[in-house]
Amino acid sequence: MKILYLSPEIAPFAKTGGLADVARALPPAISELGHDIRTMMPRYFNFDAGAAPMERALKFTVGMHNGLRAASLWKTESGGAPVYFIANEEFFFRDGLYGIGDRDYPDNLERFVFFCKAALEACRGIGFLPDVIHCNDWQTAALPAILKLIYGVYRRDPFFDPLPRAVYSIHNLSYQGRFTEDLWPVLSIPRSYYTYDFEFYGQINLSKGAIHFADAVTTVSETYAREIRETEFGYGLQGSLENRRADLHGILNGVDYIEWNPEVDPHAYGITYSADDLSGKREIKSRLRAEYGLPNKDDVPVIGMVARFVQQKGMDLMVDCAEHILRLNAQLLVLGSGDPQYQDFFEGLRRAHPDRVGIYIGFNNALAHKIEAGADIFLMPSHFEPCGLNQIYSLRYGTLPVVRLTGGLADTIRDGENGFTFSAFSVFPFYEAVRRAVDTFRNQPEEWRKMMRAAMAEDYSWKKSAEKYIDVYRSITGK
What we know:
Mean pLDDT: 95
CATH class of the largest domain: Alpha Beta
Oligomer: single chain
Largest sheet: 9 strands, mixed
Radius of gyration: 23 Å
Distance between the termini: 7 Å
Number of strands: 20
Strand order of the largest sheet: 3-4-5-2-1-8-9-13-14
Low-confidence stretches: none
Number of domains: 2
CATH superfamily of the largest domain: Glycogen Phosphorylase B
């Protein structure tokens, strides 16, 4: 099967979030199953050109609503699968991927409609007719409609015969691609499709259009697939998703066990360990404590947290619960950044409890690995979490997660078996779950080791996820 995997970001070339990691890992896993999959993303100004050598494969033009625009196609490989980059200085030669700070670029609709059209034209230019085009998040959400209507109905392009099938993956539905109605001409689609397929409270909603026009819709966990249909996490698109219920699939993201594996991890002081020999974990914990000036006491658990400091990640619960958690005679190590109010809170918490709290404000990949490896307990009290990856990393490192039962957290963590869970998004259930974790660590060492072994035996490799995506592709192509 031939697949074009379209993403606005792919690690290590450009990254703002977890989508980039998915776009790096999933296509090679699909390739290993014997399929011809090629990934494509914009070539941004801050693109990491040193990540891999590349060559220009094509120069071409793209028909936009206001005339032809120049584009070029560059090519390299990542993980054994071809990666292509769409270049255009006007649209992508900028400091940020989608905006500067909290402000989006005002021409984002035009930028990413160009990307979608350029991807199709690039396929023609290199003679690659995919069976499936797999789109990811709002930046690629215009493609299913453009493909079906412009190339399949109004222009009847002979190259795209048979017309590829389209899959649309939702990684976080709170980001939908909404734009003012006056920008409709940018899409180059007849106005008659606006009202039913794209209109959302007087605005253009690209995700709504993709949900309507894609042959299949996927999201990143089974529970999140239900939540976006039935709860407020659908952000107004519950009806559209319910209409496509038969074509909506929840497929849990995998993780890279080469990058996240305590048996080979080079980031944790060069110390490794396994389920059969946990001595390295104790040594990493001692080194981590020394790094942050925390006393090295056997009966005091280290509780780790690596997260963006935003409401989605449950920071309000942390503000209300942190002092109570510390009174359990526990130590807290937090890595992250985000809203200034939460950064100020954690800084204040460290000043008040320097012997129990360590904080790092910012991004630090090596420290994230050290916390996963050296902590005993890992906190993820998310308001919502489409998939979540840190809880899966924690499992492999024998660092038992405390999570709220939402999205992918609910699909991966089983209370009392490989972690601890709570349901209601409120202070007491969260605190009680942490208290149970601390009590088990301190007073039930045999039970704790049993849970650690169960956690470290879990398998969330990309191969399993890739096989499920192939099943979706087959269901819509008949191949």
